[in-house]
Design goal:
This protein is mainly alpha-helical and 199 residues long. The protein is built from 6 helices and 2 strands; from the N terminus they run H-H-H-H-H-E-E-H. A hairpin with a 2-residue loop joins strand 1 and strand 2.
Length: 199
């Protein structure tokens, strides 16, 4: 007897998109860390970031491929549900983008751009809370909380530091790599959890 539960194709596609988003934005945060490191640890930070990005990209692609093989047809109710989910996601994502743009302008106008990255981390963190409820992904709560805490911690760090004779932008290195690892971990969690559900 087969005890497996066939989940909707749209749910698998949503998970694949989630892993893709975590991969892409994790890479963007990592690039902030790499730039702020001013060559410290080169090329290993970049190599590590590239490897993780490729692994998670592979994970996202495999989920997309698995979703295409699903033969279960969505009911009218399921289709309506996922259309509503997609609309709300775009709204949340759009509001996040607007908030980040406003923060960027304010930080530039007030000549405090050093505050932008921690503020952005907090904005990104906050946007995960409604996403957790929307997609019913508990790891989004953890990701959101961690990003908010990382942003707050960054406010109290000195902007610059010298490590092994290299002057780095400490705030960028910290918030960049820490945020990247947080997003990548969430992407990995979504990938593994979804694979378990569709086996």
């Amino acid at each position: 007897m087969d005890n497996s539960v066939e989940i909707p194709k749209a749910a698998v596609m949503s998970a694949a998109n989630g892993v893709m988003f975590m991969t892409f934005f994790g890479a963007l945060w990592a690039s902030i860390g790499v730039i702020g490191s001013h060559g410290l640890g080169a090329p290993w930070f970049l190599v590590f970031s590239g490897i993780v990005t490729l692994v998670l990209l592979f994970g996202s692609i495999t989920l997309f491929a698995r979703a295409k093989k699903f033969t279960n047809s969505s009911t009218q109710e399921d289709s309506a549900h996922w259309k509503m989910v997609n609309r709300k996601f775009m709204l949340i994502f759009g509001l996040e983008g607007v908030a980040i743009a406003i923060a960027s302008v304010i930080c530039n106008v007030t000549n405090h751009f050093e505050l932008f990255f921690p503020i952005m981390a907090i904005i990104v963190g906050v946007h995960f809370f409604p996403l957790a409820r929307l997609f019913r992904v508990n790891s989004h709560h953890v990701t959101g909380a961690i990003l908010c805490v990382l942003g707050i911690i960054t406010f109290f760090l000195p902007m610059g530091a010298t490590v092994a004779g290299v002057s780095i932008i400490l705030t960028s290195v910290f918030i960049g790599f820490a945020s990247a690892l947080t997003l990548w971990a969430n992407g990995l969690s979504i990938w593994i959890t979804t694979l378990k559900k569709i086996r």
